[in-house]
Amino acid sequence: MAEEQSPDQEGMDEGLADEWAAAMSEAGETDGGSEGGAEDEWAAALSEQEVKPAQLDNLTSPAPAGTIGSDLDLIMDIPVTLAMELGSTEIAIRTLMQLTQGSVVELDRFAGEPLDVLVNGTLIAHGEVVVVNDKYGIRLTDVVSPSERIKRLK
Fold first, then answer.
1. In the chain, pLDDT over 90 holds for what percent of residues?
2. What is the Cα–Cα distance from 62 to 19, expressed in whole angstroms?
3. Reduced to 3 states, what is the DSSP secondary structure of residue 61?
4. What are phi and psi of 71, to 5 degrees?
5. For residue 115, how many other CB atoms are within 10 A of its CB?
6. Which residues pair with 116 in a beta bridge?
7. Does residue 47 come out as left (phi exceeding 0), alpha (psi in the -120 to 50 range) or beta?
């Protein structure tokens, strides 16, 4: 909501605006003439500068030593989802609704094939199931290179 100003407030605002206008015109006169003169000085100063295009090729180069650790520290505590995929299959909803305890679902992998290790849905490695102290684990057998991961994202 806009408040209406009284005639006294409007007069004060106009007076303040007049003072600013006078101060600005005085500043222009003391700078050596008209406003156009100041613009010409700026144009001359800018024309003397050498302008070079930004080099963007270096964006993919490794960072200088000592900065990588500090950059990685920023993301080290971000949680990610690590999942092991044994296999997959496509079935109709009708078949899905008929599954009961003891049903067997056939997967697209053979016994003994390595599992896929996914981080937030992106394949990062292959591995095999191991049992340690009565708990399941996975031993990584092949880690996907960072360049290969980037290719798979595209």
1. 18
2. 56
3. coil
4. -70, -40
5. 20
6. 85, 126
7. alpha
For the chain, list the domains and their CATH numbers: 11-44 (no CATH), 79-153 (2.30.330.10)
What is the rounded distance in angstroms from the CA atom of residue 24 to the CA atom of residue 39? Answer: 15
Q: Which two tokens stand for residue 148?
A: 């290969």
| Contact (Cβ atoms closer than 8 angstroms) between residue 154 and residue 147 | no
Q: Tell me the β-bridge partners of 132.
A: 135
pLDDT digits (tens, 9 = 90+) for 78-126: 899 999 888 889 999 999 999 999 999 998 888 888 999 998 888 899 9
29 pLDDT above the threshold of 80 = no
Supply the pLDDT for residue 95.
Answer: 93
